[in-house]
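Fold it.
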Amino acid sequence: MTPKLGIIADDFTGAILVAGMLETAGVSAPVAFSSQGVSASLESGVLILATRTRVCLVEEALATIREGAAALRAAGCSSIAYKACASFDSTATGNIGPAARFLSGEAGGRSVLMSAGFPRYNVSVHQGYLFYRGRLLSESVKRYDPLTPMEDPDLARFLSLQIGSDVALLPHSILRHGLEVTTEAWRSATTDGVAYVLADTSDDGDVEVTADLAVATDAVVVASDPVIVGVGLRLAQARRALPPPISLPDGPGAVLVGSVGPTALAQVARFAQDHPLLTIDPADTREEEAIIASALDWAAPRIGAQPFCIASMGEEAAVARAQAALGVLGAARRAERLMGGIARGLQERGVRRLVVSGGETSGAVVAALGLERVRVLPEGPLGSGFCVAEQPVRMGLFLKSGKIGEDDILLGGLDALDPTLS
């Protein structure tokens, strides 16, 4: 089977989430964590490359996307899409717009269809305005994001700054009339010379029509999870019967939280009501090796005895202090290195189940553990994000976005990875 679609995901949790949704629908969607992993993947309906392009420098992101696109093409993918998070986390300079511009050029100048939002998680776009958990973006908690504070809810205007070109809108009032009317509006916009078009995501109906439009027009797709999955389902050459459930590895479990947003803070607080919690401060002036060693000394007597959590300090004052000392990106990268080192130490000490919260943190942990690829499990009661790595050590992981999930999801994720409870 030659893959029809290659997906470059801007973080690891998003890649796993999309793969889980596709696997649930019967579409094989292996996830690789490097371009080399893509070239070695088995033939499949969809190939997914997990990257860390969400918050890195634009040139670094484009280099990664360029290499990933070449690997996906070499693996046989006839279309390549870029998957961003539901709220299109980014700054006025990128990295979503530059990714769209590059992929349009890579595809010979084809027009780009863009779509943010995820109605299932109460993130939507209406009349081009982004709403996060029912609030206009500029009035939501997203305006306080420590890495990508989102203050402009007009997504078409915001993306036009990144791209350096106008972004047209396909509003809900058009999408609700179905594919034929929407295609006419698309052709009208693109015939007038607009190369980038943003579709509303007011509801799941908008998602379905947008996915239909992407396939019908052979557009370059830059979108969040639901439209990416919809395109994957439509383009996959064949669906397969779901394989028998993969066995989960047995062993001690732990939780690592690198996300510092309000949702993650609430989840950590809920976990800490009944289980041990250690917080680490990226602004700690000790050497990173010393901070990691101290955390592992704290964890050692608890491994196998009870679930525990190690988290970055997420209070606003702690985040501000770390950013003042190290810079915004410097503080984030140091926290990721600390979490990666702790994950590796926990693995060496016998931990075989890990819940990791935060897209960038998940990327750091996967790299620190030396994982090249994973088998993603179909969606369960807690959604997607569950996977099993066979090498170098067999482990079960739940890689989740820090922005989604109920307050009790951290312990629930550990339980879902426990083969004795399944």
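The mean pLDDT is 91.
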